[in-house]
């Protein structure tokens, strides 16, 4: 995963990482957002449609090993699953098709994003920090829509949809391009959320414990990888500009997890998901946010890897990590 060659992108990206870490008081060795997570392993099985749309290996091989990381929002490593700021959850998915060869899809559980660019994200974070968020929301309609969008607690991580939001191009053997936005749906289709009263009766790790229990009990966790297919003229360079609801949603295959990582903490510290696909058959769209995000994730991931080994006691709240964020919860 190479760093961006554009110094402005790297500079803005570095500032974003610093600002996010500051907002959440994220300890070294953790992600400044989506800090609390769990790695799962499994396989992806594509549909025939996937191989018609793209020459990418994971859409053509009968099955491909995958790694998934489910996460709560915020840079607070011990945030209870029942905390409203834990939503929207994140789901990062890696298809592994060779030694050090892989491609990723990174998604979260809301079909919207608050800002269009890295610079706008910095301004949004700045307004949260200096108390001018009211003015910011009054002049940024899309941010307001994201902040106000319902973010209920799911029954389980696999009873809600996830959205990768940025547009991508699937390329077939003749070079034909299909512009898509990925979505990940519960395997049985239905989304199940908790009522506020039900949340109160749940334990602070109910989502992660449930996944661990399912896998150690010998069952699997399944989803469907879907795409919303764009039409001519649909915008691809603006994550805040949604496509009309009548765009077709197609099924690209089954995501199935059946294993837990043997060295979860260490591997979480090491793995850096990449917003840019970097595989033949899946191209980034013209959305400049992709390059910005790739730069941000690399800067953040390298800092995490360089940090001393994560100390369990600290992560368990001794160092004030259970504290609330500085009003920066609704970030992403
Ligand atoms: C301005 C835009 C964005 C910024 C500044 C940003 C920032 C970050 C940072 C700093 C990380 C930690 C990366 C690492 O240390 O490995 C991260 C991870 C993550 N982000 Fe973003 N992000 C942005 C957009 C998005 C979008 C659009 C989505 C969802 C569609 C998203 C979902 C996630 C998820 C799920 C993770 C956790 C990945 C993992 O498990 O390693 N982010 N983001």
From TrEMBL:
GO terms for molecular function: catalase activity; heme binding. This is Catalase core domain-containing protein. Gene3D superfamilies: 1.20.1280.120, Catalase core domain (2.40.180.10). PROSITE patterns: CATALASE_3. Pfam families: Catalase. It comes from the Eukaryota. GO terms for cellular component: mitochondrion; peroxisome. Residues 301-316 have a biased composition (Basic and acidic residues). SUPFAM superfamilies: Heme-dependent catalase-like (SSF56634). One of its GO terms (biological process) is hydrogen peroxide catabolic process. Residues 1-332 form the Catalase core domain. Residues 301-332 are annotated as: Disordered.
């Amino acid at each position: 995963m190479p760093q961006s060659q554009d110094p402005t992108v790297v500079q803005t990206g570095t500032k974003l990482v610093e600002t996010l870490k500051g907002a959440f008081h994220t300890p070294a060795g953790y992600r400044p957002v989506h800090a609390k997570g769990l790695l799962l392993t499994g396989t992806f099985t594509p549909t025939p449609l996937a191989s018609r749309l793209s020459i990418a290996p994971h859409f053509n091989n009968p099955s491909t090993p995958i790694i998934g990381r489910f996460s709560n929002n915020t840079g607070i490593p011990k945030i209870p699953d029942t905390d409203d700021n834990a939503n929207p959850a994140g789901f990062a998915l890696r298809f592994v098709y060779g030694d050090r060869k892989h491609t990723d899809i990174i998604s979260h559980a809301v079909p919207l994003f608050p800002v269009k660019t890295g610079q706008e994200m910095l301004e949004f974070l700045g307004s949260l920090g200096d108390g001018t968020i009211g003015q910011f929301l009054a002049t940024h309609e899309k941010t307001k829509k994201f902040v106000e969008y319902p973010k209920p607690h799911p029954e389980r991580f696999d009873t809600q949809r996830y959205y990768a939001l940025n547009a991508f191009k699937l390329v077939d053997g003749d070079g034909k391009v299909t512009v898509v936005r990925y979505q990940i749906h519960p395997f049985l289709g239905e989304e199940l959320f908790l009522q506020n009263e039900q949340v109160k009766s749940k334990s602070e790790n109910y989502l992660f414990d449930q996944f661990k229990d399912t896998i150690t009990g010998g069952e699997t966790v399944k989803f469907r990888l879907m795409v919303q297919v764009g039409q001519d003229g649909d915008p691809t360079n603006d994550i805040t500009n949604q496509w009309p609801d009548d765009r077709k949603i197609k099924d690209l295959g089954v995501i199935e997890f059946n294993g837990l990582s043997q060295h979860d903490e260490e591997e979480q510290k090491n793995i850096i998901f990449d917003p840019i696909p970097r595989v033949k058959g899946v191209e980034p769209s013209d959305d400049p946010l992709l390059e910005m995000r790739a730069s941000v994730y690399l800067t953040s991931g390298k800092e995490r890897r360089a940090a001393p080994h994560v100390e369990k006691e600290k992560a368990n709240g001794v160092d004030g990590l259970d504290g609330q964020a500085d009003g920066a919860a609704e970030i992403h």
